[in-house]
Write a structure and sequence with these properties.
By secondary structure, this protein is an alpha/beta fold. It has 19 helices and 22 strands. The longest helix has 17 residues.
């Protein structure tokens, strides 16, 4: 007598799987059995035999079944606060600087007396922001963070509280913008942002906790089950909104221990902000043992893990702080690294030592490099560290720009990852092209070339810089279209739809050292699943992806989003 298979906890029926044929070659819909939080089986009619009286059945009704989406560069805490804690002055709310100032004037200060706002983008609004914000809402301290997280504007009251005056020196890796007489305009760039964020009252932990839990549900409604939080720790005062502190690190640990954290989060530590990092700071940070904080608390590393250290090698093209081999921008400069040192050679040597220290500790270095010269320096620093002490740390370049596609060979040969953000390129459009120049913009984010060379790359949002709507990230990677050129651009660097999906599922799993645990639909792997309300679109109709919505999200075999919970506006933030 044939023994009946043990009943599964959950079976997804009538699903379609992009790019996958069933084991028997059938064209029937796929069925997936889940037991003990893992995928037990995937197949056709055979899987239906695992349905028992207590099995939860989810009918996908022909919808696409995907691995849980893994956003490999998403500032979770900062995005939570931007979404649920600050006054919003992005392009969706303000089309002119006058609109930004009007919104701030009408805003009610928080309990600590400050107004915190987020989202301005000079590429959209044009010049004139510092002049308006400086005298906006007199009597109330105001700080307004930009969309990129590399600049802020402050009014006179805030500057006075922070003690930023004509005689305040700019820190290493930072810029205090000044008028002709030397007076600060209120614009602080990169490391100089910390001069202001240090003066801000600390965010109350209950406020951060509430925002984090609310934002977690937003992400689950988008099918996201995993992310990399790229920077929490003692050096976060100069990053984004200054919320990414050790208190935020502790908060995530508490949520994991209480069982409230249903996202899988890999975290990079920050020992310095967007400028001024040195080998000494990294050495002291590692000596503190902060990277062992979660393991010492007994936290499941598959849920929450400190993976490594974030290093800012340079800034951004739009703020003129990206380090390029050729001049760029209106100032026609090369930019420079934002690492401690007086010359490019000194700063490159310092980066080498920083990466060596991280590597020797068995941790991963995530190196922010937006200029091609900075990218080359980052790659070479990793190669030198690996030559001294071989190891599979999976260091990676964040954002990345290349002097030629031949540079990708070095990444592939030495197992160095590449994580980039198609929506930044798409949203920048002609304005970013004007800064970089047509040829440099054309080959910006060379994804198809990276795939051909065998580079382990992924695509991510960089939220709150762009939306967490992964469909738009994938579409930007496939079509190479921009905000002012919405039609597909055949520049030779676009991906196929399934290839782009892998860049938000299986490829980030590799970056997380977790490809044997998550990222693909395979028996034995965790049941992190995303089910759409329609089949995956054909490569010939990439725009149809925006017509697909998430119906179900499952994390570790537990339903964290279902149709009855769907927000009215679908996936769009």
């Amino acid at each position: 007598m044939e023994q009946r298979a043990a009943a599964a906890d959950m079976v997804v029926i009538n699903a379609t799987v992009p790019g996958r044929a069933l084991p028997n070659g059938s064209s029937d819909a796929a069925n997936v059995a889940v037991s003990g939080g893992r995928i037990h089986a995937i197949g056709g009619q055979d899987v239906l035999g695992m349905i028992g009286p207590r099995t939860r059945i989810i009918d996908a009704d022909g919808g696409a079944l995907l691995p849980g989406i893994n956003d490999a560069h998403l500032h979770f805490i900062a995005s939570s606060m931007v979404r649920f804690g600050y006054v919003r002055v992005g392009s969706d709310a303000a089309a002119r600087w006058e609109d930004v100032c009007r919104i701030i004037e009408q805003a009610r200060p928080e309990a600590d007396g400050w107004v915190r706002a987020h989202g301005w983008d000079e590429l959209v609004l044009g010049p004139g922001g510092p002049e308006l914000i400086l005298d906006c809402k007199p009597g109330t301290p105001v700080v307004v963070f930009d969309q990129t997280g590399h600049q802020l504007l402050a009014n006179r009251v805030a500057l006075e509280i922070a003690g930023i005056t004509v005689s305040t020196p700019a820190p290493t890796g930072g810029v205090i913008e000044r008028d002709a007489d030397g007076s600060p305009t209120g614009r602080l760039i990169d490391a100089a942002m910390e001069l202001m964020t240090r003066a801000l009252p600390a965010l109350p932990v209950p406020v951060m906790r509430d925002a984090a839990l609310r934002f977690q549900q937003v992400l689950h409604a988008q099918g996201i089950t995993s992310l990399t939080e790229p920077g929490l720790g003692p050096g976060a005062g100069g990053l984004l909104d200054g919320s990414c502190t050790t208190a935020a690190l502790d908060l995530l640990g508490n949520l994991a221990l209480s069982g409230e954290l249903t996202l899988r989060i890999n975290t990079l530590l920050l020992f310095a902000g967007t400028g001024g990092i040195s080998a000494g700071l990294v050495r002291d940070g590692l000596a503190s043992g902060l990277h062992r904080a979660y393991t010492e608390r007994g936290i499941d590393s598959s849920q929450l893990r400190i993976a490594g250290v974030k290093v800012f090698a340079d800034g951004t093209p739009r703020s003129g702080t990206a380090w390029m081999t050729e001049p760029y921008g209106h100032a026609c400069t090369h930019g420079s690294m934002v690492i401690a040192g007086n010359t490019d050679a000194e700063r490159s040597a310092e980066l080498d030592e920083i990466v060596r220290l991280i590597h020797s500790e068995g941790l991963q270095a995530g190196i922010h490099a937006t200029g091609d010269a900075a990218t080359e320096a980052a790659m070479n620093a990793v190669i030198r560290a690996q030559a001294i002490q071989p190891g599979d740390n999976r260091h990676y370049v964040i954002h990345g720009s290349f002097p030629s596609n031949q540079s990708l060979t070095g990444l592939a040969e030495h197992g160095i990852g590449y994580s980039t953000n198609p929506m930044i390129r798409s949203g920048g459009g002609s304005l970013l092209e004007g800064i970089l120049g047509p040829e440099r913009f054309r080959r910006h984010q060379p994804l198809r070339s990276a795939a051909r060379q065998g580079v382990r790359f992924n695509i991510a949002s960089d939220s709150p810089v762009t939306t967490t709507d992964w469909r738009r990230t994938i579409l930007a990677a496939v079509t190479r279209s921009t905000v002012d050129h919405p039609e597909p651009v055949d520049d030779g660097e676009g991906l196929g739809l399934v290839q782009a999906l892998a860049a938000m599922t299986s490829q980030p799993a590799w970056q997380d050292h977790a490809e044997q645990f998550k990222g693909t639909l395979r028996p034995g792997l965790t049941a992190d699943l995303c089910i759409l309300d329609a089949p995956w679109p054909a490569d010939s109709e990439p725009d149809a992806l925006l017509e697909r919505h998430v119906a179900w999200t499952i994390s570790g075999g537990q339903i964290v989003h279902e149709p009855s919970m769907a927000p009215a506006a679908g996936l769009t933030l």
